[in-house]
């Protein structure tokens, strides 16, 4: 009786293997895992001999494991778009960029600062034009009295009422006002370049936020595929354990593997929420909107050398142009401060009517007029002007050194961004090959496990390797998108 039971159990097990052979092409798998030819023949013979018993055997869950899901390959020409949802607004990268430029408060603040700097030009140019003031005066004084204290003059006091105009015009200050106007013009140009630099910073943030959302959504896709594959494995192993074909240890390993996949999904969903929050911040929005992000064409390969990029960055970076204009403004201000020691010539003219005068008999006419030219010559002021001139000179030297430091920093940033982009670009084909190898390893592990030649540890490790390969491929793909945008930013060509 014991021999018959053992033979029946063996025949039933061979029938399950026969089913697996029909569905997954066992001969090919045996060839891949290099199963000895005699063993393969024995398995097929035993499985064929068990068909008669199988017709009478009770139905049991199939022992074969499902083929692992095909790994989605990222096209080198276009990156996948975010999955659509009902009522979800579609957003492209150019639309996101335009939205950020229009709405972001940092750009608005930079524009207002540039407008303020342009108004400073009008302020410093004002001395070139005459100053005209209207005057209306009514006064009361003790007749025939004079001022007695507080000044050298001893003007006579009397009651009067009159009105008139006073004109003041700068004739020349020997170039000081002209230098001040040039300084304000350079400062306004520097403010405009600062606005452009703020726009570039914002566009870079939009690119990071946009690709960050796509990357996080790709992680969720990988997590969901991992859960489906591991759930199927868990269900199959559980069914086999219930049929006393696998041990409870196999079920425990499969459940642990499934729990890890669920944790991966939770972390991926959290990353999506964080990515959407970052995108909303980069767009200048107060509320987080879950847009459906459109696909983006994959960028080309990075240049073979960073040297041409460095030359382009030195010419294009608005930060450098900003400091260059600041340097020119500082040099103009230095000339203006040196002009403090020169004389200035101004014209003053007055005219009006004196309608009422409390003097009898009246000796003054009913109108008045006069003009004067004044030459202001600075002689000594406690070294104030010389100190201001030296301070402006040192400020020019400091600005020049800041310009040199910024040039070196930009050169370093371009090289660093080029290295990062090149490394990220090289990772993409490597991770694609890694996915293919991990997929093949999982198929072989499944075949070995179904034939009883491998433990559950081998197949769970193969699944883990595939998941890691998928994550690495997603990271490499979007890391290169972000790295390429960073490279374009450092060159000054990100639009």
Can you offer a commentary on this structure?
The protein has 495 residues and is α+β, with helices and mostly antiparallel strands. The protein folds into two domains: 55 residues; 390 residues, Outer membrane efflux proteins (OEP). The longest helix is centred in the middle third of the chain and has 67 residues. The radius of gyration is 43 Å and the shape is elongated.
Topology of helices and strands:
Blueprint (H helix, E strand, L loop, with lengths): L1 H23 L1 H7 L4 H13 L1 H6 L33 E2 L1 H11 L1 H21 L5 E9 L20 E13 L3 H67 L5 H36 L8 E2 L13 H10 L1 H21 L5 E14 L9 E10 L7 H67 L5 H36 L4
Parallel strand pairs: 1-4
Antiparallel strand pairs: 2-3, 3-5, 5-6
Summarize the structure.
The protein is of the alpha+beta class and about 500 residues long.
Helical amount: 55-70%
CATH class placement of the largest domain: Mainly Alpha
Name of the CATH homologous superfamily of the largest domain:
Outer membrane efflux proteins (OEP)
For the record, the CATH architecture of the largest domain stands as Up-down Bundle
Rg estimate, integer Å: 43 Å
How is the largest sheet built, in terms of strand order?
2-3-5-6
The helix tally amounts to: 12
Q: Main beta sheet, described?
A: 4 strands, antiparallel
Order of helices and strands: HHHHEHHEEHHEHHEEHH
CATH fold-level assignment of the largest domain: Outer membrane efflux proteins (OEP)
How much of the sequence lies in strands comes to: 5-15%
Low-pLDDT residue intervals, each spanning 5 or more residues: 1-77
């Amino acid at each position: 009786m014991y021999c018959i039971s053992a033979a029946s159990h063996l025949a039933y097990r061979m029938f399950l293997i026969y089913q697996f052979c029909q569905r997954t092409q066992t001969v090919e798998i045996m060839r891949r895992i290099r199963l000895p030819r005699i063993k393969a023949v024995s398995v097929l013979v035993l499985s064929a001999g068990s068909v008669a018993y199988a017709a009478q055997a009770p139905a049991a869950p199939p022992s074969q494991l499902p083929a692992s899901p095909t790994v989605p390959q990222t096209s080198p020409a276009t990156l996948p778009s975010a999955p659509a949802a009902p009522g979800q607004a579609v957003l492209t990268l150019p639309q996101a960029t335009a939205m950020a430029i229009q709405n972001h408060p940092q750009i608005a603040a930079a524009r207002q600062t540039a407008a303020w700097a342009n108004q400073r030009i009008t302020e410093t140019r004002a001395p070139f034009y005459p100053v005209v003031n209207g005057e209306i005066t009514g006064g009361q004084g003790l007749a025939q009295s004079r001022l007695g204290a507080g000044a050298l003059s001893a003007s006579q006091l009397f009651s009067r009422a009159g009105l008139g105009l006073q004109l003041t015009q700068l004739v020349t200050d020997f170039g000081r006002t002209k230098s001040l106007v040039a300084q304000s013009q350079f400062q306004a140009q520097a403010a405009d370049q600062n606005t452009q630099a703020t726009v570039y910073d914002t566009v870079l943030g939009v690119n990071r936020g946009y690709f960050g959302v796509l990357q996080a959504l790709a992680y969720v896709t990988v997590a969901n595929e991992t859960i489906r594959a591991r759930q199927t494995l868990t269900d199959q192993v559980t069914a086999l354990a219930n049929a006393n074909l696998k041990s409870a240890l196999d079920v425990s390993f499969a459940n642990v593997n499934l729990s890890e996949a669920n944790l991966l999904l939770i972390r991926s969903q959290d990353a999506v929420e964080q990515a959407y929050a970052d995108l909303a911040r980069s767009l200048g929005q107060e509320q987080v909107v879950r847009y459906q992000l459109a696909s983006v064409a994959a960028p080309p390969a990075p240049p073979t050398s960073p040297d041409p990029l460095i030359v382009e960055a030195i010419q294009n970076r608005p930060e450098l142009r900003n400091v260059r204009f600041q340097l020119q403004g500082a040099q103009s201000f230095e000339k203006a401060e040196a002009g403090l020691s020169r004389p200035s010539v101004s014209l003053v003219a007055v005219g009006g009517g004196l309608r009422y005068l409390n003097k009898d008999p009246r000796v003054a006419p009913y109108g008045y007029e006069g003009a004067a030219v004044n030459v202001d010559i600075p002689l000594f002021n406690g070294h104030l002007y010389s100190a201001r001139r030296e301070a402006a000179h040192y400020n020019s030297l400091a600005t020049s050194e800041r310009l040199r430091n910024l040039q070196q920093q930009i050169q370093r940033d371009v090289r660093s961004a080029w290295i990062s982009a090149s490394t990220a670009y090289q990772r993409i084909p490597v991770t694609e090959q890694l996915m293919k190898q991990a997929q093949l390893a999982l198929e072989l592990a499944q075949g070995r496990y179904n034939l009883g030649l491998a433990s559950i540890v081998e197949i769970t490790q193969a699944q883990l390797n595939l998941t890691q390969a998928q994550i690495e491929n997603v990271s490499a793909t979007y890391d290169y998108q972000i790295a390429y945008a960073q490279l374009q930013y450092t060159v000054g060509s990100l639009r």
